[in-house]
Amino acid sequence: MTVAASARRPALVLAGALATMTLGACAWGWRATPSTRDATIGAARARLVKDSMTAVLQRAVADGAFPGAYAAVGTARGVIAEVSVGQLDADDARRPDAMTVWDLASLTKVIGTTSAMMQLVQAKKVALDSPVVRYLPEWTARGAERITVRHLLTHSGGLPAWRPLYKEATSPSDALAKLYATGPDTLPGVRFLYSDLGFILLGKLVERVSGEPLAQYDTAHVFRPLGMTDIRYLPPAAWRSRIAPTENDPWRQRHLRGEVHDENAAMLGGVSGHAGLFASGRDLVRFARMYLGNGAVDGHRIVDSATIALFTHLQDSTVSRRALGWETPTGGNSAGHKLSANAFGHTGFTGTSVWMDPTQGIFVLLLTNRVNPTRQNLKISGVRVGLADAVIGAYREGAR
């Protein structure tokens, strides 16, 4: 039976309302483990938050912002409310849920690469203000020797934003050679320019310092210790029916499902410091809870609280509002207008985002496939802001 045909089975049509995790487990053929709930939040307050989320996301689906979405709001203790809307694809009418697997795109930068960097910095294996070439001497481009690890983490190294390695290279090794030949076009530390290239370099730095491939390092030292079992690079074929399809890709000439959307990450073999991770909402809830728990969740610690504070703190306001790896609220980004100045978060090109606010003790997670069927759909920006503002407004109102 095809995916499209299975989507029309009567049992699955019952998912027309907000699908529960139990229904998703029965229909999709795996056992779902419910997310931990924050029992300290009263039912009325939780309902207010959920209603606010539902209103924003249902409007977004009606407006064509994305085919489907899963969103969760919670604290260090657990989930307050979660909402699923829409469907996976025009040809797959199943509603997403906490077990749906999404292409995280640039959330890879913070969930994978930045997490690894936190551990290496804490262990004093990497120094933030050391030149990157100390760890990657093969980066011989002119001016590279001036760029520090901190510069790359804050996107202030002077590197170009992007380079079409997937068009220029014929293999992963050729793509890396071209990357190592790419240097800054301005002095480091004088401007902010969001650069995928810098995070590709950071991913290679993790591999060099740790002696482990990036995917292996992240799994062994970040994901497995946190109990995150539905996150990985290069998802196996067995996961395919759980994965939200992304774009009808003009480069690969096919509809992508379970293949990394980012073309440069694909050229690099599907594993890169800037993109490549796939994960479920349930796992990302655990990740967000870890940050609000100062490096630990359910008794499992991956970094200390001082390292969390270091990496989530605004670095140099004269250049940008960036922390190390993370964004902070600017008044014009996806944080919206009601998160505190201490909040930090990130977005992914495919339609993903997460924001955490230690001052208010809350996280807002949004997972969508807004690039399905085309990346030209840019409505996600307003949805992210609307969701963050609605959630925080409802959370505050419910406390009165």
* Helix and strand run: HHHHEEEHHHHHHEEEHEHEEHEEEH
For the record, the CATH architecture of the largest domain stands as 3-Layer(aba) Sandwich
The poorly predicted ranges are 1-32
CATH topological fold name of the largest domain: Beta-lactamase
How would a textbook summarize the main sheet?
A: 5 strands, antiparallel
The strand line-up of the biggest sheet is: 2-1-12-11-10
- Rounded to the nearest angstrom, the radius of gyration is 20 Å
The CATH class of the largest domain turns out to be Alpha Beta
**How far from one another are the termini?**
52 Å
| Overall form | globular
Helix count, per DSSP? 14
How much of the polypeptide forms β-strand, as a percent range?
5-15%
For this entry, give a set of tags:
400 residues, Beta-lactamase, Methane Monooxygenase Hydroxylase, Chain G, domain 1, five-stranded antiparallel β-sheet, three-stranded antiparallel β-sheet
Task: Give a structural overview.
By secondary structure, the chain is an alpha+beta fold. The protein folds into 2 domains: 3-101 and 227-398, 3-Layer(aba) Sandwich (Beta-lactamase); 111-215, Up-down Bundle (Methane Monooxygenase Hydroxylase, Chain G, domain 1), CATH 1.20.58.710. It is built from 14 helices and 12 strands. A 5-stranded antiparallel β-sheet has the order 2-1-12-11-10, with helices on both faces. A 3-stranded antiparallel β-sheet has the order 3-7-4. Strands 5-6 form a two-stranded antiparallel sheet. A hairpin with a 4-residue loop joins β11 (352-357) and β12 (362-368). The longest helix is centred in the first third of the chain and has 20 residues, at 43-62. The radius of gyration is 20 Å and the shape is globular. The termini are far apart.
